[in-house]
Specification:
Elements (H helix, E strand, L loop, with lengths): L5 E6 L3 E6 L5 E6 L4 E6 L5 E6 L3 E6 L5 E6 L4 E6 L5 E6 L3 E6 L5 E6 L4 E6 L5 E6 L3 E6 L5 E6 L4 E6 L5 E6 L3 E6 L5 E6 L4 E6 L5 E6 L3 E6 L4 E7 L4 E6 L5 E6 L3 E6 L5 E6 L4 E6 L5 E6 L3 E6 L5 E6 L4 E6 L1
Antiparallel strand pairs: 1-2, 1-32, 2-3, 4-5, 5-6, 6-7, 8-9, 9-10, 10-11, 12-13, 13-14, 14-15, 16-17, 17-18, 18-19, 20-21, 21-22, 22-23, 24-25, 25-26, 26-27, 28-29, 29-30, 30-31
C-alpha cells in the first residue's frame, strides 16, 4: 500500500494537529476547549475525527482544518472511529454511551448504552455492526441500523479494548480481569482465552486472523497462536504495555510502553528489531498502511515517526503537553 504522507496527533494541550511527515509542517490545528483524547482519519484521509474531555467529538476537513461537524456527549469522549465508507463515525464516552453519527452533518443515528463508561468503539468491515468496550466489565456488539444489542461478552472486570478481526466474525477483548478473550460475534461463545498474570490493556488480531497480540501490566506483550492456543512469543518491556498492534501483513508487532519506549518485534522469532525511545511513557504506537514506518505518541509531549527497516527517527513532532494518540492518513 501507499506510504502515508500525514499524521494526526491528539494532545492534552487542547489541540489535535495534522502534520506533513516529510516537512514536519503543521497542516492544520484542530482546537478543543479541554484535553484531546484521540484523533483518527477517515479511510480516504480527507477527514479527521477528534474527541475531547470537553464532551465533544468533531469532524474536520484534513486539508483546511475547517470544522465540518460537532457532536456532544454528557461527559468526556474517549475515542471515535469512522466506518469503512467514512460516512459514519462512532464515539465512546464516559457518559455510559456509544453513539453513531452522520459524518456530514453530525446528526445522531443511534445510541448504545452500557452501565458504566465506554472506553472504545469500532466498526466491523461491512459497517453493519460495531463493538464497544466498557468499564461495566462487558463488550457488546450492536446493529448499526437499529441500535439493537446483538450480543454481550462478559468479563469479570473492566473491559478496556475490543476490536473485530478482518472478517468481522470474531472480536478480541482486553480486560482488567487479567485476560484477553477471542469471541464468536454471532453466538457470543468464547473461542480462546489468553491468560495473563496482571491487567490487560490492549489486544489485536493480525490481518489473517491466525494470531493475536496482547499487552498489559506484567511488563510484556504476548503473541498467541489461535490454532494451537499457545503463546508463541513474549515481548518484554521494563514497565506496563499500553498498546499493541500488528503491521498490515502480520509479521511484525509494535508495542507502546510506560518504560519510555516503543518496541518493534519479529513475530516469528520474538526478536526485538528496534527500540524507539522517548523520555517518558509511550501511550500509542502504530504502523502506517505500507508498514514502512511507525508512529509513536508520548507523555514527553512529542510524537515521532520512525523508519521500520533502519530504526531511524524520521520526524519529531512537538506539543505542549502529553500526546495521547497518533494516527496515519
Amino acid at each position: 500500500m501507499e506510504r502515508s504522507t500525514c499524521v494526526v496527533t491528539a494532545s492534552n494541550d487542547r489541540r489535535a494537529c495534522i502534520w506533513d511527515i516529510s516537512t514536519r509542517a503543521v497542516v492544520a490545528t484542530l482546537d478543543h476547549d479541554l484535553e484531546v483524547n484521540s484523533a483518527a482519519f477517515d479511510p480516504s484521509g480527507m477527514s479527521v475525527v477528534t474527541t475531547s474531555q470537553d464532551r465533544s467529538a468533531k469532524v474536520w476537513d484534513a486539508a483546511s482544518g475547517e470544522e465540518l461537524a460537532a457532536v456532544a456527549h454528557d461527559n468526556s469522549v474517549y475515542s471515535a472511529a469512522f466506518d469503512t465508507s467514512g460516512a459514519l463515525f462512532v464515539t465512546a464516552s464516559d457518559d455510559k454511551t456509544a453513539s453513531v453519527w452522520d459524518a456530514t452533518n453530525g446528526s445522531k443515528r443511534i445510541s448504545a448504552r452500557h452501565d458504566h463508561a465506554v472506553y472504545n468503539a469500532s466498526f466491523e468491515v461491512s459497517s453493519s455492526r460495531f463493538v464497544t468496550a466498557s468499564r461495566d466489565s462487558s463488550a457488546c456488539v450492536w446493529d448499526v441500523s437499529t441500535g439493537a444489542r446483538l450480543v454481550k461478552l462478559k468479563h469479570r472486570d473492566r473491559c478496556m479494548n475490543a476490536t473485530f478481526d478482518a472478517a468481522g466474525s470474531r472480536v478480541v477483548t482486553a480486560s482488567f480481569d487479567k485476560s484477553a478473550i477471542v469471541w464468536d460475534v454471532v453466538s457470543g461463545a468464547k473461542i480462546f482465552t489468553a491468560k495473563h498474570s496482571n491487567l490487560v490493556f490492549s489486544a489485536a488480531f493480525n490481518a489473517p486472523g491466525t494470531h493475536i497480540v496482547t499487552g498489559g501490566d506484567e511488563h510484556a506483550a504476548k503473541v498467541w497462536d489461535l490454532a494451537s492456543g499457545k503463546e508463541v512469543a513474549t515481548l518484554r518491556h521494563k514497565d506496563r504495555v499500553y498498546k499493541v498492534s500488528f503491521d498490515p501483513i502480520g509479521t511484525r508487532v509494535v508495542t507502546a510502553s510506560a518504560d519510555g519506549s516503543a518496541g518493534l518485534w519479529d513475530v516469528a522469532t520474538g526478536a526485538q528489531l528496534h527500540t524507539f525511545k522517548h523520555s517518558r511513557g509511550v501511550l500509542d504506537a502504530s504502523f502506517d498502511p505500507s508498514a514502512a514506518v511507525v508512529a509513536t505518541a508520548s507523555e514527553d509531549g512529542t510524537a515521532a515517526v520512525w523508519q521500520v527497516e533502519s530504526g531511524e527517527r524520521l520526524t519529531a513532532l512537538r506539543h505542549e503537553a502529553t500526546v495521547n494518540g497518533i494516527a496515519f492518513n
